[in-house]
Specification:
The protein is an alpha+beta fold. It has 16 helices and 31 strands.
Amino acid sequence: MHTLNIGILAHVDAGKTSLTERLLFDTGAIDRLGSVDAGSTQTDTGDIERRRGITIRSAVASFTVGTSQVNLIDTPGHSDFISEVERALGVLDGAVLVLSAVEGVQAQTRVLMKTLRKMRLPTLVFVNKIDRAGARHEEMLADIRRKLSPQVVPMNAVRQAGSPAARTVPISLDGPDSRSRVAEILAESDDTLLADLVAGSIPTAGRVLAEVRAQTAAGLLHPVFFGSALTGQGIDALIDGISRLLPPARGTGDDDPRATVFAIERAGAGEKVAYLRMHSGELRARQRITSYRLEADGDVSENSEQITALHVIGPVRREAHRPAAGDIAKVWGLSRIRVGDQVGSARGLAGRSHFAPPTLEALARPKQAGQAARLHAALVSLADQDPLIHTRAVPGEGTSVLLYGEVQKDVIAETLLREFGVEAVFEQSRTVHLERPVGVGEACEEIGQHGPGGFFATVGLRVEPATGPGITFRREVELGSLPRPFHRAIEDTVRRTLEQGLHGWAVTGCLVTLTRTGYAAPVSTAGDFRGLTPLVLMRALDIAGTRVYEPCHAFELEVPPDGLSAVTAQLAALGADIMESSGGAETWSVKGDIPARRVREFERQLPALSHGEGVWWSRPSGDRPVLGSVPVRARSDGNPLNRSEYLRHLAQRGTAR
């Protein structure tokens, strides 16, 4: 028996969780068909998920087909929980992208397919809800080819679409015309097949099927299945496609255990349970393992812990408690583990993110006085399950949290109350900006320069733009010029200080060079360097200057010709840059980018501007300089690291310990 790990991905409300339930039922994995509306599905197990009827956390369920064990990973469809999808992508062998035959190709669907194609992840497309009023067949195929990928092949057809009697029929390859149509699509990626077609040779059905399998496994072709998770139509064909067209899990061949942590849940007593996808080797209970984590400063940290118990996802097999390459396992006993950690090796930590980071920030305060520490601890605990819920303590005010959207904020508030007993009040969300240095600035402070109240330390720093993102720290001084703890204190303080620049936003794209050091043994301490470094750094940053950048969305817009003028005028008024526009008598397409803070405003205005016929799609895509007044995020913790307080320090020319 071989293992196949696949993800079920979709835009919200396309029927993804219902499809998961139907696959489990039709393969005999469960004996009762659950319902999203009734809150009785296998994968949406949380109280909040059942009540809201949406998937929030990725969940795993299994079924078998012949000699294949298929592990289904049901991911959220709402864009606010895209980070859950992000983590699932790294452990998948294939995917099923679910669309609705009624709503068609939606915004999140396009984002997901672009990512799947870029990753070359083998993907099947399932068009759900063929029995619903308004369901389409040929029009859906045309939309899929135009908006998702031209390299698609329908595997079945629909009769009586849009009615309760809708049914699917397989597309036969017995006839030369049908084989020729499929072969023409396959020939886009196969020169040999193209040459045969040009020569007038029509391939056999066996050759066509073999090429469909090969190109699907390579992520070049996307077979399309129509059906209904509600009635079960088309499900058998999809199950057959999953087992025959998607490639099985592969290991690295190494003997040493290596795995990726892609999800974490809490047991009844609050104990962490980690979901691991095995890449090589085996794990066993009571084994001591080492996990590796990429920290915010770019360093890799290690944690060594002992597994107390583990369980392989899927049917009971021989060696069921010894997960091997390709398996997904639940592991207990790893109290310090976090989503994204790599077990057994640091390989894979530097993987590129597939989706943009969160662009919203909200401040959370406890509703009851005296619970600030408890609230912060609860949010830190949630960050173990979702590292993109980045938290930052704001003394005297609360805890700042990075977010994708308002629904995510509501869910976090409910989770805090239900699981941690803390009622939180969130302030209005605001867009997260960034600062980048625009010039070169250098500053230095010497030992004793400020008299007996000064620091027993010398620090010189140069700040300048860097070619890449983040903070790059380097030294022009010898590593032995200071004791190692002092060097470490300087670098750590530089990274912590640049979490807020001259305008209060995190600084990125910045190269900081340590140009001068000095200390007085035995009186100098690491505290002297931690106290002096921010003052020198902010002086250098002030000399260099920074520019504030705001996140943007790349957008595509379809609008009728009579609404084009009003739509483009409003886009321009909201600060959008229109890169491309084209169209004809029926519709126009407009592409460009727009500040993220303006997206929701334009979405609200679009129906009136386009007579209800405009179709909008956007996704986070980079950033650009802020024009006009610069937004400022002021510090409120009393730490003299913002611009105004630092300039006051320069005027006084004094440094208090």
